[in-house]
Write a structure and sequence with these properties.
The chain is α/β, with parallel strands linked by helices. Helix content is 21%, strand content 33%.
Amino acid sequence: MDIYTNAQRAYLLLEDGSVVKGYSVGAKHDVFGELVFNTSVVGFQQLLTDPANENNLLVDTFPMLGNYGVVENEDDLSAAHARAVIVRDWCPTPSNYKMTGRIDEWMERKDIVGLFGVDTRALTRKLRDHGVQKAMITHKEITEENKAELLEAIRAYDCVAPYWKEKNEMEITPVSDRKVVVMDLGARADVVSALNARGFSTIVVPSTMSAEEMLSHEPEAIVICGGYSGKADLSKELDTIAELQKSGKAILGIGLGHQLMGILAGGKIEKMKAGHRGANCPVTALESGRTFVSTQNHGDIVVDVDPAKATVTHINANDKTCEGLSYKEFNGMSVQFIPECELGRRNFDGVYEAFMNMIEK
């Protein structure tokens, strides 16, 4: 099958005025977002539904997308997804005994725009060297007559509000009498699965719920998990987390949860040039000196925490940025990377095991 036969032309226009030509796959509407790159080789279905990519036009550095198809019910979240993906090629003839469909069909159902036939290596180098930037994918030809107007629209574009700001319902997964409350700031499905696998029932609650109401469920611990916040006002969430820290419960922050806990420990959030996005990011645990490979998907980091309130436990082995904190004023820890959810020998980072130990104290 020739994927270029009858393929519709589409264009990527960057905020700096660069134009990249390609072909359309998936949804067929114009879309704006922040153009970023991810170095993961597998897991594209989970990556495109990771809540952390809610505002992103995602450049996939691996040269082919969709070669093992998609599997129903293996999304990281059904309520949020990347706004678009840019790839060199997509595979129309996938092979996988578990697959239930092709990537192009799945992207149409998820309303994810795709652009293929692109030199993603050159695009990645641009973002790596000059930083992420706003961009759009359009199915209209870009000409000298309309380019200025389109660039004005890109520069005026403001990031979307995170879906979880409007979420009001709880999601309960019963496993045992032991309960963990998950404060949903864009919680990933694998975090819930990891807690369930370790014998805990999970109660995923909206960020609008008060600390008092969260604690009324009598959980043994709290997990604060998320990835994307846009420019949303997070003052209420910060107040709620501050109240939870007074409860005496063990608290684990992941992703955006780590960043908000870092702010409460006197730190600041700093935007990165290109971000950490990939499944091959080395992290060093400072206490043991051991370095392991982690999965990450973020564009912001915590800096300048108050050493009287928190201790840095993990750093990125490449750029030495903060990847984990341990807190001195309450029973808590947080990590910027995505903890490995598997039980047993494949679980290299030990985050959930450390959290279980905190609960038992």
